[in-house]
Amino acid sequence: TRSTRPQRLLHAVQKNATRGDPRSVINAIDQFCRHKEWAMNVGDEKGCILDSVVSEVNPSTVLELGTYCGYSTVRIARLLPPGAKFITLEFNPKVAKIARQVIAWAGLEDKIQLVEGASGDLIPKMKEQFGVETFDLVFLDHWKDRYLPDTKLMEECGLLKKGSILLADNVICPGTPDYLEYIRNSPRYKSQYFKSHLEYTKVEDGLEKSVFLG
Ligand SMILES: O=C(NCCNC(=O)c1cc(-c2ccc(F)cc2)cc(O)c1O)c1cc(O)ncn1
Ligand SMILES: [Mg+2]
């Protein structure tokens, strides 16, 4: 049977990237998605904005919602200080299997804990099961209709502290209208929109960065 897009993306990494070199893995995926087959990675343009936020926050604890093939996982992990705790959640086991191999090719498997399951089920278990107190940075890139419920869940579970940063992908395309409305009108957040484009296209998209005020 025909291979899947994540499988073809992994093969492009194994063919074109150097083992242990995260930058070459990022470049191999961007080349593949720009010239061979589009895929829903955050991409190089929004990826640079992601990099700048990660570098600015310099987080000790990071949560990523929506691993997909591990592109943003590699982008984030390569910038983390030693000893940082990075948990990434992926719902789809087949996709998670690919992501593990992309992350291993970049040599970053020791910095990342990839957990398979639904975010709504796993978030309430973060403290007891994964020994997390609060997250310094959360990157939201999973199902767009889960951004709002999962943000409320993180608040309720006490996973956000004063100064925690939420960075949300795709707030324009595919769009997360209920999340944007909530986060921009809540007195508990200070938000900023970074205008950009949908990965590998000229379509408008952007990232919403929100600071939790406690
Ligand atoms: O699809 C699951 N996750 C990816 C979420 N991400 C997206 O859907 C996503 C989509 C797009 C996108 C944009 C334009 C377009 F025409 C088509 C797709 C871009 C992005 O940057 C994304 O991040 C998923 C599956 C599953 O079984 N369980 C839990 N999650
Ligand atoms: Mg996305």
Topology at a glance:
Layout: H1 5-16, H2 22-35, H3 43-57, E1 61-65, H4 71-77, E2 85-90, H5 93-105, E3 112-116, H6 119-122, H7 126-130, E4 137-140, H8 147-156, E5 165-168, H9 171-175, H10 177-185, E6 189-197, E7 204-212
Parallel strand pairs: 1-2, 1-4, 2-3, 4-5
Antiparallel strand pairs: 5-7, 6-7
Helix pairs in contact: 1-2, 1-5, 3-4, 8-10
The chain binds ligand 77P and magnesium ion.
Ligand 77P is lined by residues 40, 66, 68, 91-92, 141-143, 169-170, 173-174, 198-199.
Number of separate strands: 7
The set of bound ligands, ions and cofactors reads: the ligand O=C(NCCNC(=O)c1cc(-c2ccc(F)cc2)cc(O)c1O)c1cc(O)ncn1, magnesium ion
Radius of gyration of CA atoms, rounded to a whole number: 16 Å
User: What structural category do the secondary elements indicate?
Assistant: alpha/beta
Percentage of residues in DSSP E strands = 15-25%
Helix content range: 40-55%
Tell me about the largest β-sheet: 7 strands, mixed
Write down the secondary-structure element order.
Answer: HHHEHEHEHHEHEHHEE
Distinct helical segment count: 10
Report the end-to-end length measured between terminal Cα atoms. Answer: 51 Å
What is the approximate shape?
A: globular
Q: Which regions are unreliable across 5 or more consecutive residues at pLDDT < 50?
A: none
Question: pLDDT average, as an integer?
Answer: 98
Task: Write out the strand line-up for the largest beta sheet, numbering strands in chain order.
Answer: 3-2-1-4-5-7-6
